Amino acid sequence: MRRGQPRDRSREPRRPQNVSEKKGSGTSRTARRESGIAYSRSLRFWLDPANVAVRLQQAGPVLRTRTGPAVAFQMNDPALLRKVGSSEDVFQFWGTDPCLEDVAGRGITGAEGRAHRERRAVMRPALAAPRLKGLGTSVWSRTRHLVDGIPSDRPVDVRYEMGRLAAGLVVETVLNSTLSPETLSGLARSRSAVSAGMIWKYTLSPWPWLPAPRQRAFRRAAALLDRASREVYDNHRPDPDGGDVVSLLKRASGDDRRAVEHDLYALLLAGIETTTGTLAWACYELGRHPEHQDALRAEADAAFGAAPSSEGVRAELLPRAAGFITEVTRVHGIPFLVRRTRDATCLGGQSLPARAVVTLPLGALRRDPARYARPDDFDPLRWSPDAQPPLSPGPVLAYGLGPRYCPGAAAADIMGPVALAGLVHARTFRMARPGRKVRVSLELTPTPKGLSMVVAPRTPRAEGAVPPQGPGPAADSGAGPGPGPQTGPGVGSCPVSGSGSAPAPAPGSGSGSDSDSDER
């Protein structure tokens, strides 16, 4: 084309539509603005589920992607996603990678095949639903106790406070033990260093000569987690019948204390990581939606009153809280899982070399407009028992799939809704500085970094006042069941099971590992 000659744009390839422009995607510019999430250019592909959803709509069953020098293969077909997640003999779980042997390679996380199945079988009776009848009461009691330690006279770092709450709940209600206040606070402060450190170690493993960021902080945080596992072992209070998790692990390991501590290390890492992320994002949405906060508080008041009985706290009495947790997982949950091919293979007509990174875009499935009306809107009432047509939480894949399906799923179904009810029953959450940027951390579980809120004692409701009911249920589609087991509401996917990590296949080209969002 000569200089000065008008450009013939009719012959140019059409630019792919943005997520906010694509027709039929169930997404609008208004919805994107109201969501309060704005991802940085370097992380948008990996952390923004809506962006991935549009990319996959434009692709075939397998999408070949490139980030820097690395190539990854995204699964677009739900059947292929299920196959990859369920075939550990072909696709290696990220936690068993040699680069993570000193951290994730401990206990149940690093075990494969028969050894992994045997460790899961040891814990299964203690984490089965019939054994957890009293868990709701324990979670309620410990939540109220731990919430008393959150300052009410100044803004607080929500991610830290929810990390402290999550660590206390996992240790005290699931593992029947205690931690010193110093260790509890240390775990909350150092959680992100362990989480981000594992991401970087895995991401940079093809280039071992490259130094991973923040490795000194990572080693200190890993050492603290190791110390916490020893405290859990020493302070363990066994159930009278010896059927609790730690008692079963001790019995199965004989006199091998270190083997038990390795499993406790894995359970602490998984439980604290996922519960922190879910509760922190729940607080974020409580601040954005006061009407839902009021309705959740009214539900807790109606179900439990001021002082629940020892047998009175049950998650099934909290359908609104359960729906809220499920929606938090759908909107803010882990965006994708990662596997590596053990050998060269073929998938969806695409040849994959050995050691190729394969990603399972759970976040894109959770934004599928064929399944969810207004998929980018935060609408917990879409999970209401009265919603028409009713939705199953199974396709959210809160606990992963295949042999790495979270062993603590039944406990998480109880802990999430009850802890949320305990929080709103005691406190009122509001943004400390509306309009201030909040960043989305690139960690095992993305969390809202820099989220500052005022967590004030609740304001008594006037006698006879009718609590707000919030907006009506979403008119979601009745699409057939998607991949994965049919489960209840989740507190997020589990690193122990293989459903908890979303390490990027290669380092981003941007300046950091966080992206911005707005407090609204």
TrEMBL record:
UniProt region (Disordered), positions on chain: 1-34, 461-520
Source organism superkingdom: Bacteria
Segments traversing the membrane: none
Biased composition (Gly residues): 479-491
Keyword Lipid metabolism found: no
A Pfam short name: p450
Residues bound to heme: 406
Low complexity: compositionally biased ranges: 462-478, 492-503
Cofactor: heme
Basic and acidic residues composition-biased segments: 1-24
MF annotations from Gene Ontology: heme binding; iron ion binding; monooxygenase activity; oxidoreductase activity, acting on paired donors, with incorporation or reduction of molecular oxygen
Alphabetic keyword roster: Heme, Iron, Metal-binding
Keyword presence, Protein biosynthesis: no
Family from the record: Belongs to the cytochrome P450 family.
Name of protein: Cytochrome
